[in-house]
Amino acid sequence: MGLLSLGTPLPWDQARELAQEVRKHGIEQFLHIWNNMKDRKRDRLLWGDEIEYMLISLDHQRRRARLSQRGHELLSLLQVEETESLERASRTGEKIELEALWRPEFGRYMIEGTPGHPYNSTVNDLVNVEANMKRRREIVAQLMDENEIILSVGSYPALGSGDFFDPPHKANGPFSRSLFLPDEVINPHPRFRTLAGNIRERRGSKVAINMPIFHDLNTPRPFVDPAIPYTRDLFPEDKEAREGAALPDHIYMDAMGFGMGCCCLQITLQAPNVDQARRLYDQLATVGAVMMSLSASSPVFRGYLADVDCRWNVIAAAVDDRTLEERGQVKLAKDRFVIPKSRYGTIDTFLGSSDGHFKPEYNDLELVYDRDIYQHLASNGIDDLMAKHVSHLFIRDPLVIFEELLKQDNSVSADHFENIQSTNWQNVRFKPPPPNSPIGWRVEFRPLEVQVTDFENAAFSVFTVLLARAILAFGDLNLYIPVTKMDTNMERAHSRDAVLREKFFFRRKIYADDSSSSGSEAEGEDSEADKDQVVEMSANEIINGSPGFVGLIAIVEMYLDTVVLSECVRRKLDTYIAFIRGRADGSIMTAAAWIRSFVRSHPAYAFDSVVSSEINYDLVVALDDIANGRRQAPELVGEGNAC
Ligand code: ADP
Ligand code: MG
Ligand code: MG
User: Fold this and answer.
1) Would you kindly state where each structural domain of the chain is located, as residue ranges?
2) Which end of the chain is more exposed for a tag (fewer CB within 10 A), N or C?
3) Which example biological process does GO assign this protein (predicted)?
4) What is the pLDDT of residue 530?
């Protein structure tokens, strides 16, 4: 989450009136950026990661772990150095060198940390990533009270269950109206509660999130959640919860905080130019699902073991602001479009680039886009695929409008464009350069679940960067699959142990010289249709290869072989690659599998899917011990990979 605007956010009834205005100016701002920046060339391959943490307070005597409201306070302290150095720099022109930057997130208990400046473009620099991540943990630790810890894990197991928040507050606040989450879990900056409130109001009801329960030996069938106060009647939406929002055999959640209160690992990569950014966007989008399955770290929601391992669908439902008309549940009358997906989800359209690999049939989802905006962009020289992309993002309303920021100079501001862009939360994000800045065209890779240890977070970051470098270096690498297959992959990537049990759609042939995948050399050249064939493969086959398929690790290694590296650097990179290999072949567990197994072997677990506060406490302490090297967990991080 970037820096926040200050001001007064408008409530939904006023914001909706200004939506068209914001869209209109947002498009003008995009056009200015495009015209000024489209010819930018030779930007360096800078990149950076974002790691989200949760602050937890422990009560060892009562064996209780609770998310701490103090996260926000800690963040203010963490930001002091940056504010002071910015101020000094503006006076003296001095260059700022900070180790880390700290940003707010949706949860009041959350903190986001990034490196102080983007990492360099050299491969040698990749070995510094883990040290920087460790440093971030140390910096936060210096400010924590004795009974506090920070944890990096996808979903907090007890969020919304029992006494999970320190200090306790009552649920059913005016913004979320949740049965389970007090509004106090939301970051106090007005943007966040307005976001939650406006999503609910725009939708016309509370969000409804249902994740399948993990049926253990003693879990009732059907499972009807006893924690839902079925007789409550505070808000009209409570009626909806009783009459259908909460599904049997599911864990029901009813607020934005259940989704945006999860943590993730994101990686932003700068490309040399806009064309290469488009290539990176398309190619990275197709590997998102399999990478997410390797990184799964969210098996528990609201105190119950779920039959999924990832947070993605929870967030998609948690911010689903579509009205009944837009969801296709009643006939379109007042709204403009029927929209198949939440504003959080996989991309709906590829951007194409000059590599020659894109084919129109890959964009096989009937795209909903704003035709007027498309026409306007097209008549201003924007090509078809880019105009479709932007006019698709702009079918959404701006959710939070700051009164003070309405009037802007479109030639120097991108605020209105970013308002819509930054609330289209997709598996990859195409980021145009901010106006008047040295920053170039970037792509953000967003599907990864955050890992418990810095080693794992570094391994996923480094592997993603190396894959991105290989994509840029090897123009004949082609990972395109149809968009709808990517959607299916993402659905499959959620399921319990997807990394071991699922198949993902992937191209049979991803590389022009990939003789391993032809399978029909005797018959000579593959036909065009053969080359385009999409088949189903396990994560292991996709990552590690198989007799018929080269595998992504081999591609990364081919790239590394083209770079001059010291032996020491190569060895370190090899440990990251070996870790990814282990996750894919099942020899190293995902955090989701580890957590599930911890819960199921806990003496207090009754095999009824319930993760009690006692189990939650022991789990949180164990994860913190692993993250800080006090407990060895080779089954999670790989043999010999110290934390
Ligand atoms: P968000 O859009 O998620 O708010 P930001 O724009 O704040 O993200 O940046 C997030 C990440 O981008 C950080 O890891 C940061 O180090 C990295 N970053 C910043 N500048 C660049 C750049 N020029 N190229 C690549 N990455 C960058
Ligand atoms: Mg974030
Ligand atoms: Mg981000």
Assistant:
1) 12-445, 454-592
2) N
3) glutathione biosynthetic process
4) 76
Question: So what's the pLDDT on residue 476?
Answer: 95
Dist. CA 643–CA 637, nearest whole Å:
8
Can you read off the two tokens belonging to residue 151?
């944890």
Going by C-alpha positions, the residue among 582, 604, 578 that lies closest to residue 593 is 582
Return d(Cα 213, Cα 181) in angstroms, integer: 20
Centre of ligand 2 to C-alpha 350, Å, is: 24
Beta bridge partner(s), residue 212: 250
**Residue among 3, 97, 268, 472 whose CB has most ligand 1 atoms within 8 A, to mutate:** 268
* DSSP 3-state percent helix, strand, coil across the chain (nearest 5): 40, 15, 45
Nearest ligand to the CA atom of 187: 2
Return the closest-CA partner of residue 613 out of 228, 157, 299, 212.
157
CA distance 544 to 42: 33
What is the per-residue pLDDT for 228?
A: 81
pLDDT at position 522 is 44
- Token representation of residue 255: 């607020």
pLDDT tens digit string along 38-65? Answer: 999 999 999 999 999 999 999 999 999 9
Helices (H) and strands (E) in the chain — how many of each?
A: 22, 17
Q: Which residues line ligand 1 (CB under 6 A)?
A: 1-2, 46-50, 114-115, 118, 268-270, 439, 442
Residues of the chain with pLDDT under 70: 1-5, 230-244, 513-526, 642-643
- C-alpha of residue 574 to centroid of ligand 1, in Å: 26
**Strand, coil or helix: what is 64?**
strand
Q: Are strands 148-151 and 47-59 parallel, antiparallel or unpaired?
A: antiparallel
Q: Among candidates 295, 338, 193, 324, which has minimal Cα distance to 636?
A: 295
Q: Is the C-alpha dihedral spanning 465, 466, 472, 475 positive or negative?
A: negative
Domain made up of 12-445: CATH architecture: 2-Layer Sandwich (3.30)
Tell me if 540 sits within 8 A of 585, measured CB to CB.
yes
H/E run at residue 425: strand 425-426
Q: pLDDT digit string (tens) for 482-539? A: 999 999 999 999 999 999 999 999 999 998 766 555 444 444 556 777 778 999 999 9
CA of 573 from ligand 1 middle (Å) equals 23
For the beta carbon of residue 393, count every other beta carbon within 10 angstroms.
Answer: 25
**Confidence (pLDDT) at 518:** 47
Q: At what angle do helices 567-585 and 274-295 cross, to 10 degrees?
A: 60
CA distance linking residue 286 with residue 357, whole number of Å: 14
The total number of residues written for the chain in this structure = 643
Cβ(114)–Cβ(2) under 8 Å? Answer: no
Residues 6+ apart with CB under 8 A from 356: none
Q: How far is the CA of 450 from the centre of ligand 1 (A)?
A: 17
Q: Whose CA is closest to atom 13 on ligand 1?
A: 48
> Cα dihedral sign for 257, 258, 264, 268?
negative
Rounded Cα distance between 206 and 320, Å, is 9
| Beta-strand pair 64-68/503-507 | unpaired
In this structure, the number of other CB atoms found within 10 A of the CB of residue 643 comes to 20
Phi, psi of 252 (to 5 degrees): -95, 135
Residue among 141, 112, 118, 101 nearest 627 (CA): 141
**Tokens representing residue 289 in the block:** 């699902």
Bridge pairing between strands 110-115 and 100-103: antiparallel
Tell me, what's the pLDDT at 643? 53
| Whether the model pTM is above 0.85 | yes
Per-residue confidence (pLDDT) for residue 459, from 0 to 100 = 98
